[in-house]
Amino acid sequence: MFTTTVFALIAALPVALSQTQNDETILGVYMLHRHGDRTAKITAPANLTDLGYRQVYTSGEYYRNRYIVEDSAYRISGISPDVVFQSQLQVSAPIDAVLQNSATGFLQALYPPVGTSANTETLRNGTEVTAPMEGYQLVPIGVAESGSGSEDSTWLQGTSDCARAEISSNEYFSSDEFNEMMSQTEDFYSRLLPVISGEFDETTANFEDAYTIFDFVNFATIHNATISSADLLDKETLFQLRTLADNHEWNLAYNASNPIRAVAGMTLAAQIVQFLETTIEDAGTETGQKLGIQFGAYATFAAFFGLANLHSVNVDFVGVTDYASSMVFEMFTKTSDAVTAENYPSEDDIYVRFLYHNGTATEDSPPTPYPLFGSGQEALSWTDFSNSMNEFALGDTGSWCVACGNITGECAAYNSDQSGSDSDTASDNVESCSNGMSAIFNGVIGALVTLAVILGLEASVMLIFGLRVVSKKTLAQASPGGVEKGF
To answer: Is pLDDT above 60 for 176?
Structure first.
């Protein structure tokens, strides 16, 4: 017993030293988190598995220990350690069973039940009422504006609702690079037909369905006790399946010469900056927001990685992020002194650090800091960080509408033919986000996209433009309502 205790103290010593040497105070955190393990997209509706539930719950435990508990070196200043303060926490996820349930599982660990003694109240008539489930804490999950049904969609841009982003992604399917990959991998996918023939045939077993095929096989290798022709799935084949899927999805999510393809990363950037700006404005008040968490699909990760130039730092950023992965933005000040509303640091003394973990974060496998925007610095001043993010962020409806070329519905007010300061402001991002398309061409695109929605003839419109329809068979199976949200 004594020996065990001594070893435990020795093991804890580096942690204690790092805490005393950590002359920082975390002011606020924003996190994007992927869902846990789920069933395959092609067998929609997708559902969170027990493994996936465990993955996000474990991640929630890690981030509780990092940001919430009182004795953590990285505890967010002023955040409630046990009983959740709703105003301090902002959580969102699209209307999607996998993502919503993942958020719930994560929150169960982030703020676990407080016990019956803490969740019992006495009514006027003397009756004592105890909250169910040992003081289970209810945390509302807001609905993200885009991404509904994303885990039932087999195409990245199927639900961005951004006309130019959809067109940009589809351009990849007519590119020389795509056609070359289709040709080079034809035999590879044909050899896998005995494994995937239940869901794919000769017309769909190709690089065009690279991610959907990988996703189907990946689920089988994790969950299925028996797999048809399993001998075909050696390590080399599984690696190539994953690599091809990575290549396919990266090119759909990001293109340096046409950044609007990464529209999901643009909107995420705005949400991050807006949340942290509000945290600064709240200036350490007890009721101010301190921790923002958004659950989303891997496409948003890829889009942001491209925009933030992270793929130049590590080639792994080009790959599809694993289940329960997380990327975090820590806003901090370089002092260990207690931060209050009275001595809240000025913006000149505030910094932001980016961290990422591929897969479930744990104490033994924590997230790693990486430099953003090719800066070579793991910590950026708040001014440099926010300015760099705002170079590509789309943070209001007008900017989004103009950059996407949408002119109907709520975007009608921002049509380039109309006047108004919102429209003028939004137009500033058109050239960088849309490859400089003319206003006339924007109107044509918007009108055609609107026509496609009204008539339900999206495939026909894409044919008129000479674009390829992604995975015709799997899209048809995605949901009764047609192509659903993909981000």
So the answer is: yes
